[in-house]
Input
Amino acid sequence: MTGHIDPTKESFAVFRAKDRPGPIHMLNLVRFRDQAAYPDGRVATGAEAYAAYGRESAPVFARLGGRIVWRGGFEHMLIGPGEEAWHECFIAEYPSVAAFVEMIRDPVYREAVKHRQAAVLDS
Output
């Protein structure tokens, strides 16, 4: 199985082109690796690496007006592949597409996202 970790350049271009006034809401469904895949070989579980991503990216997310509007635990796939299971389920709100783009360009966020890339098996 090939997981989806980061948006493709094409997908991100379509997202940016749909810029419109007002907030956006992103549903995040995240499955962790058992062991994080850090390029430098450091050892952590996927959950630990994702927690590091959250800690380090939270100040940037908050500064740009982002907030978590819903968080819940995955329980059961009612419609869809039965083998699907997610470790993190939440909806993030951003004030605008521009705020999200600014976040991913922020140097502090760019450092933090390395933890997400090591942690995530699929999203």
